[in-house]
Amino acid sequence: ATVVLRHDYTAPAYLIDRVDLSLDLDPVKTRVLNRMQLRRNPAVTPQPLRLDGTDLNLARVLLNGAGCSFRLDAGQLVLENLPAGPDPFELEIFTTCCPEKNTHLMGLYLSQGTFFTQCEAEGFRRISYFLDRPDVMARYRVTLRAHQAAYPVLLSNGNLVEHGALEGGRHYAVWDDPHPKPSYLFALVAGKLVQREQKIISRSGKPHTLQIYVRAGDLDKTEHAMQSLMAAIAWDEARFGLPLDLERFMIVATSDFNMGAMENKGLNIFNTKYVLASPASATDADYAHVESVVAHEYLHNWSGNRVTCRDWFQLSLKEGLTVFRDQEFSQDMAASASARAVKRIEDVRVLRSSQFAEDAGPMAHPVRPDQYAEINNFYTLTVYEKGAEVVRMMQTLVSDAALDPLGRAGFARGLKLYFERHDGQAVTCDDFAQAMADANPGSALATQLEAFKRWYAQAGTPRVQANAQFDPALGQYTLELRQHCPATPGQPHKEPFVIPVALGLLAADGRALPLQLEGESQATGTSRTLVLSAPVQRFVFTGLVGLEHAPIPSLLRSFSAPVILHTELDADALRTLLAHDSDAFNRWEAGQLLMLRQMLAALHASGPVRPDVLDAATLEALRAVLRHPELDPAFKALLLTAPSEAYLAEQVQQVDPPRIHAVRLSVRSQLAQALHADWVWAFEAHPTEGAYRPDAVSSARRDLTGLALNMLCLAARASGDAVWPGKAYQRCKDAAHMTELHQSLQALLHSGHALAEPALERMHQRHRHDDLVLDKWFALQASAPDFDGTLLARVQALLHHPDFKLRNPNRARSLIGSFCHANPAALHRPDGAGYAFWRARVLEIDAFNPQVAARLARAIERWQPLVEPYRSAARKALSDVAQHPGLSPDVLEIVTRALA
Ligand code: B3K
Ligand code: ZN
Fold this sequence. Notes:
By secondary structure, the protein is of the alpha+beta class.
């Protein structure tokens, strides 16, 4: 496969000013007439025009209205004899394509009889020949023609300027988009859809029409998405002064979609999973996802669409920034300080269990990658989530201790300058960082910008080691911070990173101590940010007189940098942080560390996993959290959830997935039994009855009740008690909403109770007409603990279930993806049958949808640290796939890197 290198970037030789696109939509043969106005790019030496195209049937090419010579070369349409000089010329290209046969779901395809498009990253070339690259921005006018009865709704980007009837039962619509855009933001939709409409007046007094299009019958599930959209619009204007620049903003939902959603200008296309929500069909987590994905795509309207990427290596320019923006939006929506902390903890959990794993494995790549074979493989956690952390660190590094301690004002200034400078342009990550620095001269970011930008260039997760010394006589606390980043593929040696370390110091009794660095005239508050930029740095805190014990450092508050922190804190210190830290994140982290250390000890011990992994002091500390009179119930639930199996696997050199599972199960059982009365209390003290509302306060209560029920059913597994499983089953039957049903069923499945079977049966009966609930039904089974080694057989049987549809990405992911990505102890079987299953599914799916297959292929990329017999068997499965003839470039790139 050909590899694209970041350093090979050259500006386009031609520019496209206008595109006039006419599509006669037909499932079997769609005719596309593309009339473009082009001109030579005066900045580039004259050369032939090479237009990208994939799977197109070319019928005609006209240059300024007359026939011309052209050739096809490796898929590209090449025109050599174009008029010299700067004058614009017109090309007319007539092609056809077959949407019905499009199973990749890239370009123009059909989903349940409706036409949809997906163009990012390189799908537009499946619709017409084009300069399909993000730095070519054109104004589009689009005419859609189709049968009126079959396709009553015709949508594209921008404003509807004309529509009407045609002969033969056909009709047409003309859309004009006033904003120049790259081809990846083009979209059309044509089919039978209904819509919810909302008129709004923006802050500046302008009217806008918001519309959400769905299939008939789904309209009652669009209210939450509409509320989320309105909230996102108001938020971007209030926090960053960025208004909606369109008269009409549309969201359309489809159940056949390769990813979550797509930010096409004015016409976002969404996976139904991130639009539709009703109490009966969606869980709290689903509601939260709808809110954040609707916001994410909307926020792209500025960060991505008004200013886009020069090339795909800069993807994090729009994705990291927009994830940061949607995270901030969700935090601001959460309102209370504790709900904000809960959101931050959830985001960090994803980052640490999944992105850190990516950064430690064969797919490790910088936030701004240097090369790719298939760009779709680089829509990764590193580009998105680590990219968001890089943006977050910039906010921290432009902060001003006195005036703007969080850096929000400085960051908003930087964003304003970025949009002023680059509106309408396709730019790079350097341009973004430069605007941030220029808007904040004198800030830590501005003074260390070049070194800071190593976060874009160097892969891998840096390790920070903290050591401290306390001199009680002098009242001096010396903190030494050391950083080191392990080698990653192609990057054996790393330069030091610029790492903001937010911290506080606590006295042994939990009091927050005033912070004064050597050389400062007075203490400034009890929390501040140090900047670690050398391999080793010492920070001396003074004025700490009268302390009997050394202060306890609370480091990396709110997870101020995406690093792995090692401290020498003992269990007493961790319990003090757990009980008293003013930083909620570190309070949670202290609880996680207490559990983690003992879990690692159990993992490394020889012999069977012991039932008493946690010591009494830890159990008491956790009990105190659970019973705490003031803490947020969602925070309690996060704190009392043991580190995940994926996170544990990252902490060890030798990974034994079933043993990791056994250790975690042992801890869960121990917590369930030792805190039994407390769980009963938690369950009863947080009633969840009454009408469902997705707000943070009531969902927090449900989080804790759900965990309590889970624990009580697990305790019943040991005691043989029938009451709690019975209650869980009853809740499955009478569930007032999906969160309750989902949690109760999970409690039964995760305790291996026989009542899970009839509960599953009922769920299927009741919800078999709802695709999104069926997805959950498959996912619940595929991710359940494999108590007796029969789960693989069950998953295999479910492949033949009448409701299983391999070609539907959501359904394939719900069964196969859940099993392979979310159930390590069931996938990694000593007999290798899990890998055989993985291999067969990857090959099967790759034959029709390489993107979905490539994602699945990543499930065993981290075979290297596995213990035997897993290691050899996983490698064998990977090389079997790699040797398969006719593999897509997508899957080939993943397995090749995994085996390298
Ligand atoms: N920009 C799209 C992702 C496109 C993925 C292409 N393989 C959705 C998003 O990040 O908002
Ligand atoms: Zn995005």
